[in-house]
Amino acid sequence: MITRRLIAVQLVLLVAFITIFLLPEQTKSSPAGIAMTLPNFVDGWIADDAEVTAREREVLAKDTEFARKIYTSPAGDQIYVSIVMSGDDMTNSIHRPERCLPAQGWSLQSTEKRSVPVNGGSGLELTRLRNVRAIEQPNGSRPLLHNLNYYWFIGYKDMTPSHLERTGIDLRDRILHGYSQRWAYVTVAANITKGWMRPERTEEQATAIVEKFIAELAPKLQRPDGRQLLLAQR
Predict the structure, then answer these.
(1) Which residue(s) pair with 82 in the sheet?
(2) How would you classify the pairing of strands 78-85 and 107-118?
(3) Structural domain boundaries, residue 101
(4) Beta carbons of 126 and 116 less than 8 angstroms apart
(5) pLDDT at site 13
(6) Strand 28-32 and strand 179-182: pairing?
(7) How far is the CA of 121 from the CAs of 4, 154, 222, 231, in angstroms?
(8) Residue 226 CB neighbours (<10 A)
């Protein structure tokens, strides 16, 4: 058993070393695959600009781009939407949301894949995180606030809900084509407001609201040349 594990580790290391030598010394970045704009209106939801924190700008590469809004429905529900676009130094400008959520006070409870029908039936594949954080109250109590966070990655030619798959696509492109796609990741998130604020929404209600919103938002996202984003992906 130990011998097999050692052989497996050696094979992984060998592949890694071979991959390093196969990678071009310099790789070009593809153009962006998504326009860095968010609509001001989505099916009755009205948008307000949301803050990009000084900490984000400090930690991420200088050429990272952001588009960020908070959408409010006629009933008072709120949904947070963010696009983060990598620059040339992709390793310092794009990552899984799981990496930054703990720094914002959130603890990850679960991860799952979701598919949201858009454009009359085609499914948009997403990763959904269920998060929780304690909120300090004046009386010293720390009740838990729950949050649903959906995300997916958009490149110039490909779209995926998986950070691992995105990494594999990058490796393929660098080895076979000598370039790397300029990736963005889109985040759509909302709190589960039951017991916190009005309108009070259970997890099931929040899920339905957010996924309906994503179905309306996704077709409005465009490539830089103005073409519809979803139809341009393969």
Answers:
(1) 68, 187
(2) unpaired
(3) 2-232
(4) yes
(5) 41
(6) parallel
(7) 46, 20, 19, 13
(8) 7
Q: What's this model's pTM, rounded to 2 decimal places?
A: 0.84
Give pLDDT, residue 227. 85
If one counts the domains in the chain, the total is 1
Only one residue has tokens 């307000």, namely 48
Question: What SS3 state is found at 110?
Answer: strand
What the block records as the tokens of 105 is: 């006070």
User: Cα dist. 146→4, 76, 179, 210 in Å?
Assistant: 43, 18, 40, 14
Collapsed DSSP state (helix, strand, coil) of residue 205: helix
203 is written with which tokens? 């997890």
| pLDDT tier, 3 (very low <50, low <70, confident <90, very high otherwise) | low
Return d(Cα 222, Cα 231) in angstroms, integer. 10
Cβ–Cβ < 8 Å for 184, 229:
no
> Which token pair is 178?
């000598």
